Structure to design on (356 residues):
């Protein structure tokens, strides 16, 4: 029954569109005017979800820190990962990245990118959610849903009316002053209170499982509130990956991420982590949309994971396209692109074709 309920919840969520350690000190004292880049560093061994051991991962991370010291690479850890991804995220001067990628034990260096705050939209009738719980009796009882978003207002009467009633756990990964778009405020200051200052995460949780004056698609679920945004502005994918690892470690049955970073790769760490969650039996739902105005190729991570329930909507309208002609005169329409995501310094990507 639980598997059937989880499948139902996964389909319903389509329309909703242990915390990794923070390093205490930099490796080398930084000069403030030389900083700017955020990167993931992927190490060679498998994470815990892929058969790695805590002892092996700890040894590999310690060796990595020793190598950075020998190479006199200046950097500050933001997050350290072991469950779904073996590596760290760093704040580092751009001049150090090439040397970082050449260190022994480094598989790849990936860019950390910003994730914008998502917009609000919903529907229940279109997915027959009312029939699912009225006629079939599926209400999601016994299912833990991790909502990775702006937090959840756990005091809302339709979401339990207090901490521990429906929202049974959570974490604020960034703090109340975080804004990834502001260099002065982009350092996470985590705390244990995932209260929602924005409203989007509460909105999403309500769609999933409100039970009161309003009713969501699965009013019996419990929530894990994983707050990855500050009160304003975007977050970053390294924060998102930290939240995904906590969802795994806390035993979430479903992970919902009504968000994403456009112009990414299936090999981006958040996409890879999402796939690994699915292989562990977790249903992962992530937004593929929210980037429509940026063009047809604005694929987002983590929804680019091959096992993720990747969700998008569309406007039933006509679009004006640019056109070029093949040698035989056949017209081919295309959408010009003026933006693309940063390219990783390592790893393997699929064949890429770009017209524009």
């Amino acid at each position: 029954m639980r598997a059937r309920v989880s499948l139902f919840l996964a389909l319903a969520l389509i329309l909703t569109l242990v915390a990794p350690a923070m390093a205490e000190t930099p490796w080398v004292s930084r000069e403030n005017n030389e900083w700017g880049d955020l990167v993931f560093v992927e190490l060679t061994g498998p994470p815990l979800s892929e058969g790695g051991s805590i002892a092996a991962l700890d040894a590999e991370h310690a060796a990595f820190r020793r190598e950075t010291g020998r190479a006199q690479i200046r950097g500050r850890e933001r997050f350290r990962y072991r469950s779904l991804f073996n590596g760290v995220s760093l704040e580092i001067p751009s001049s150090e990245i090439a040397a970082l990628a050449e260190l022994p034990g480094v598989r790849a260096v990936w860019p950390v990118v910003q994730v914008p705050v998502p917009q609000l939209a919903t529907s229940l009738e279109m997915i027959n959610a009312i029939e699912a719980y009225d006629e079939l009796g599926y209400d999601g009882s016994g299912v833990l849903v991790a909502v990775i978003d702006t937090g959840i207002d756990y005091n809302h009467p339709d979401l339990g009316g207090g901490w521990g009633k429906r929202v049974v756990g959570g974490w604020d990964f960034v703090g109340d002053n975080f804004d990834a778009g502001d260099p002065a405020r982009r350092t996470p200051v985590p705390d244990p209170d995932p209260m929602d200052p924005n409203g989007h995460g509460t909105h999403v949780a309500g769609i999933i499982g409100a039970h009161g004056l309003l009713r969501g698609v699965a009013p019996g679920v419990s929530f894990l509130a994983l707050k990855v945004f500050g009160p304003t502005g975007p977050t970053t994918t390294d924060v998102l990956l930290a939240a995904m690892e906590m969802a795994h470690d806390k035993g979430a049955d479903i992970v919902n991420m009504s968000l994403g970073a456009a112009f990414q790769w299936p090999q981006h760490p958040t996409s890879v982590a999402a796939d690994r969650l699915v292989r562990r039996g977790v249903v992962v739902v992530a937004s593929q949309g929210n980037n429509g105005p940026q063009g047809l190729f604005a694929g987002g991570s983590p929804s680019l994971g091959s096992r993720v329930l990747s969700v998008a909507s569309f406007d039933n309208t006509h679009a004006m396209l640019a056109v070029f002609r093949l040698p035989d005169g056949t017209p081919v329409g295309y959408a010009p692109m003026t933006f693309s995501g940063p390219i990783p310094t390592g790893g393997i990507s699929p064949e890429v074709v770009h017209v524009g």
The two ends are 49 Å apart (CA to CA). The first strand starts at residue 37 and ends at 43. Residues 54-70 form the longest helix (17 residues).
